[in-house]
Amino acid sequence: MKPYTKKILLENGEEFYGYGFGADRETVVEIVFNTSMVGYQEILSDPSYTDQAVVMTYPLIGNYGTAEEDYETKFPTLGAMIVREYNDTPSNFRYTKTLAEVFEEYGIPAVWGVDTRRLVRIIRDRGTQKVMITDAETPRDEALARLRAAELRHDMVRRVSCRKRWFSRTANHRYDVVAVDCGIKYNIIRKLNEKGCNVTVVPYDISVEELLAFRPDGVFLSNGPGDPADVPEVVEKVRALRGRVPMFGICLGHQMIARAYGARTFKMKFGHRGGNHPVKCLATGKIEITSQNHSFAVATDSLEGTPLRLTHVNLLDGTAEGLECPEERVFSVQYHPESAPGPQDSGYLFDKFIQMMEEHRNA
After folding, report:
1. Mind listing the pLDDT tens digit for each residue in 286-303?
2. Cα–Cα distances in Å, from 244 out to 60, 131, 208, 329, 361?
């Protein structure tokens, strides 16, 4: 067996050895796991994974390469990826680059050959934590000291948000939507375009006055990385827009809407990441299979006394998956109804946003 080239060092001192691919550099990030069987390109390009090392539970990664039209952002900011087996010879007529080539291009380190089952169990049992990816020969004590001294950053939204406004237009549009970019996924914009919306994507720190100057029919609050408490300016923006324009939030947007109405958010032990989470819609009783990616959640007990109403519940742990304030035409979900490559159970939520904007226009 060829000698290992990389190792993953946990905060408690445990080490996992493997082989490096992608960028050859040392990094300290937060380790999480994802249970999706497909969609590694969408994962690597989802801004919500900024500064996170993602352990893929599916054992074979890289076998269909990457395709230019499948990215969720222009410049991926994934912290790292850890896989059991990596395939560097893709079999897919659409592929344009291998996964290793993409990681190398964007400075993202990756490791294969790791016992991902054991690593995922550690994350599940002990929670997410800081890890270091470094050369296999780096002395353990030296690496552990650097790991424990390193501080995880809290400016992820600022780094992934657009610097200037940009437009995504569609033919014969019916509605104008302003999307507040906290790390927005391209497929959300595609879904809004498909529903007849011209979308103006604006920086997270845009003022309320600048936002309303676009005369939007609705405001969309995007997904994004990190703690909603790290972006109080967006929460204040939501508070100022309540009742003035319809709003729809996804993931981080859902959490910021909750905080704007006085609810509380908290960090989960290991979060939700993957495309197999059952969520119950309380209005219909139907169970939706959803795709999720978040470390923080809305505390259900903090909704009492707020104008928000619980609309969706996670059947695995009872966490709040959907909220709404019908009187002010505001609603949100924790999961991703636009998820690519799937599942597609929750696409009706975009129709709900369209209906809400139509009602507001005719009010």
Report:
1. 999 999 999 999 999 999
2. 48, 44, 11, 9, 11
> CB of 128 within 8 A of CB of 270?
yes
List C-alpha distances in Å: 195 to 5, 34, 200, 214, 250: 49, 30, 15, 19, 17
pLDDT in tens, 10-21: 998 999 999 999
For residues 22 and 108, the answer to whether their CB atoms sit within 8 Å is yes
Name the residues annotated as catalytic. 251, 336, 338
Mean pLDDT of the chain: 96
Mean pLDDT of 261-271: 97
Rounded distance, CA 22 to CA 25, Å?
9
Q: Which two tokens stand for residue 70?
A: 């499948």
Tokens 């259900």 correspond to: 300
Whole-number Å distance between alpha carbons of 337 and 351: 11
pLDDT at residue number 26: 97
Q: 340 falls in which pLDDT band (50, 70, 90)?
A: confident
- Contact assessment for residue 160 and residue 50, using Cβ atoms and an 8 Å cutoff: yes
> What is the phi/psi pair of residue 352, to 5°?
-65, -40
Q: Is 72 exposed, middle or buried (0-12, 13-18, 19+ CB in 10 A)?
A: buried
Tell me the per-residue pLDDT of 101-139, one tens digit each, with 9 for 90 and over: 999 999 999 999 999 999 999 999 999 999 999 999 999
Strands (DSSP E) found in 57-127: 60-61, 80-83, 85-86, 109-112
What backbone phi and psi angles, to 5 degrees, belong to 143? Answer: -65, -40
Encoded amino acid at 312, one letter: H
Residue whose entry in the numeric block shows the structure tokens 């009783």: 285
Dihedral of CA atoms 162, 330, 191, 201 in degrees, nearest 10, equals -20
Query: Three-class SS of residue 284?
Result: coil
The whole model's pTM is what?
0.95
Residues 206/248, Cβ–Cβ less than 8 Å: no
